[in-house]
Amino acid sequence: RLAYRELDQRANRLAALLRERGASPGRYVGICVERGIDMVVAQLAVLKSGAAYVPLDPAYPKDRLEFMATDAGLAVLVTQDTLADVLPWPRERTVMLDADAALIASYGDTGAPLDAAPSPTDAAYVIYTSGSTGRPKGVMVPHRAAVNFICSMAREPGLRASDRLLAVTTLSFDIAVLELFLPLTCGATVVLASHGEALDGHALGALIERHAVTLMQATPASWRLLLEAGWPGRAGLRAVCGGEPLPRDLAEALLQRCAALWNLYGPTETTVWSTAWRVEAPQRGIRIGRPIDNTTVWVLDALDQP
User: Fold this and answer.
1) What band does 131 get if pLDDT is binned at 50, 70 and 90?
2) How many CB atoms lie within 10 A of CB 284?
3) Cut 0.90: pTM above it
4) What phi-psi label fits residue 109: left (phi over 0), alpha (psi between -120 and 50 degrees) or beta?
5) Cα Rg for the chain, rounded, in angstroms?
6) Calpha distance 286→246 (Å, rounded)
7) Cα(169)–Cα(180) distance, integer angstroms
8) How far apart are CA 131 and CA 137, in angstroms?
9) Which H or E run contains 68?
10) What are the DSSP calls for 97-141, one per residue?
11) Is 62 helix (H, G, I), strand (E, B) or coil?
12) Can you tell me the distance from the alpha carbon of 40 to that of 31, in angstroms, rounded to the nearest whole number?
């Protein structure tokens, strides 16, 4: 468990070291760590340094990680000593959260003001997608787009300080932005599932009950994991589904077990989700809904004409 004050202090200390190692607005910092509190600390620390973070899932193949790190031209890599062989990087441009723990702890809790703050158009994070060619492609998402997305999601589907959101998505999938930043900007609680728990329907069901989770976002495949494990549902849980088309049978099953169900759609390039629809009568068809705040959707015919 980590309170907001402790999270802020830990992020400030790490941000100070990152700035010394070269992190600043317009530069990129890789995050290659195991799922846990340190991962969230690292995200916030990179943003506090003024740089953009590049998530590098340690479960990815080594050659893919090396390509992404090199292609992004990382100024610094945040990782752990136990993952040193997963993504080799020059030590002078690496911060090891475990091996460098004493050094990180030596910095102040309050943090120092940035010499130059990032602008709304500077990148907040870079997500690598497979792209149409199968070669990873880095999508740079600016601060203003990320902020707009978070503010829109806070309004609809909605989140309050009393909520508890179960985060199950790898940091390298852009929908993790909602799972981590939305609760933290609303004063809510993040319940962070481990890598193993996120792949285990029984474990996910247990986490939902143990922490009285009120919102969970997942792909249809992950929601089916829960159902196949015999999950009976939770009356106060709001379900958010996206990343793949929502099948009607799954929608009906979730509506029987949850307080509400939302279907969200959007590509990484337009900042996570671009449309949202509250599912109430799936038998009439599943829709992707209407645009989120400050977003326009164009409907084209087979010839790409409006």
Assistant:
1) low
2) 8
3) yes
4) alpha
5) 20
6) 7
7) 10
8) 6
9) helix 62-72
10) TTTTHHHHHTS-SS----SSPPPTTSEEEEEEE--TTSS-EEEEE
11) helix
12) 10
**Rounded distance between C-alpha atoms, residue 17 and residue 39, angstroms:** 16
The pair of three-digit structure tokens given for residue 101, joined into one six-digit string: 């723990």
> Per the structure block, which two tokens stand in for 35?
């799922």
64: buried, middle or exposed (CB in 10 Å: 19+, 13-18, 0-12)?
middle
Amino acid sitting at position 253: A
Q: Phi/psi of residue 190, each to 5°?
A: -95, 125
Check residue 291 and report its DSSP letter: E
Burial status of residue 131 (CB atoms within 10 A of its CB: 0-12, 13-18, 19 or more): exposed
Q: For tokens 């940035």, name the residue.
A: 114
Query: Residue 264 has which token pair?
Result: 């969200």
- Residue 96 to residues 29, 91, 163, Cα–Cα distance (Å): 13, 9, 33
pLDDT at 297 over 80: yes
* Furthest CA-CA distance within the chain: 61
Tokens read off for 281: 């009568």
